[in-house]
């Protein structure tokens, strides 16, 4: 056996196994802790993300009139709260609590509140659904609803709900003109893209 002092450059010393690298992504189901924010949830979310935490702040998009113009505004779904995936034994909870924009953990009986993963997944799905509906309703200029002329669709919202119709025209605001069979007569009607689904 050679000692470290006897080894010279160019000597063959044998195979040295590499150290196993540990995975920095925690495995298993997330543990979504509820954090209280100071002011905007976006500041807390940015503070947590900048410190390497996985964080989520559900938002809702609305149209609002600002200085006489209609603009899209993104608002917190739950003002004053954000969620962070924190695992005991893996994450530093004090570091999350002191992130910019974070006030403290939401506590119950002096223990941090943890939301079940299926609930958070349902919130994300609801947020995505509301955003898709908003996008179909207001659409960006130059975008059309994702239907084809002549396609049969079901009306899922509004006064003609549960009727089926045929797509006659599309516009650049995400609206769809459909022909609805009412009392044996085809009646053309404009609907928001979110009010119809492919049959």
Mind explaining what this structure looks like?
This protein is an alpha+beta fold. The chain has three helices and 14 strands. Strands 1, 2, 5, 6 and 9 form a five-stranded antiparallel beta sheet that branches. The protein has a five-stranded antiparallel beta sheet with strand order 13-12-11-10-14. A hairpin with a 4-residue loop joins β11 and β12. The protein is elongated, with a radius of gyration of 27 Å. The termini are far apart. The mean pLDDT is 78.
SSE map:
Blueprint: E1 32-37, H1 41-50, E2 54-56, E3 59-66, E4 69-76, E5 81-85, H2 93-97, E6 102-105, E7 107-108, E8 111-112, E9 114-115, H3 117-138, E10 152-155, E11 164-170, E12 175-182, E13 185-192, E14 196-198
Antiparallel strand pairs: 1-5, 1-6, 1-9, 2-5, 3-4, 7-8, 10-11, 10-14, 11-12, 12-13
How would a crystallographer describe the biggest sheet? 5 strands, antiparallel
Spatial shape: elongated
What's the mean pLDDT score?
78
Determine the oligomeric state from the structure: single chain
**Percent of residues in beta strands?**
35-45%
State the helix count: 3
Tell me how many strands there are.
Answer: 14
The helix/strand class is alpha+beta
Ends: how far apart?
77 Å
Secondary-structure element string: EHEEEEHEEEEHEEEEE
Low-confidence stretches: none
Rg estimate, integer Å = 27 Å
Q: Share of helix among residues? A: 10-25%
């Amino acid at each position: 056996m050679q000692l470290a002092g006897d080894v010279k450059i160019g000597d063959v010393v044998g195979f040295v196994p590499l150290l196993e690298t540990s995975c920095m992504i925690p495995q298993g189901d997330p543990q979504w802790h509820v954090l209280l924010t100071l002011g905007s949830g976006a500041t807390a979310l940015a503070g947590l993300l900048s410190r390497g935490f996985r964080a989520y702040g559900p938002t809702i998009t609305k149209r609002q009139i600002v200085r006489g113009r209609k603009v899209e505004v993104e608002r917190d779904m739950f003002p004053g709260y954000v969620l962070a995936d924190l695992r005991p034994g893996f994450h530093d909870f004090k570091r999350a609590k002191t992130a910019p924009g974070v006030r403290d953990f939401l506590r119950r009986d002096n223990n941090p509140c943890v939301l079940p993963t299926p609930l958070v997944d349902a919130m994300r799905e609801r947020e995505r659904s509301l955003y898709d509906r908003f996008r179909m309703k207001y659409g960006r200029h130059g975008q059309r609803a994702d239907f084809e002329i002549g396609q049969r669709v079901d009306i899922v919202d509004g006064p003609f709900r549960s009727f089926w119709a045929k797509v006659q025209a599309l516009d650049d605001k995400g609206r769809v003109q459909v022909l609805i069979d009412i009392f044996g007569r085809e009646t053309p009607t404009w609907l928001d893209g979110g009010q119809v689904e492919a049959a």
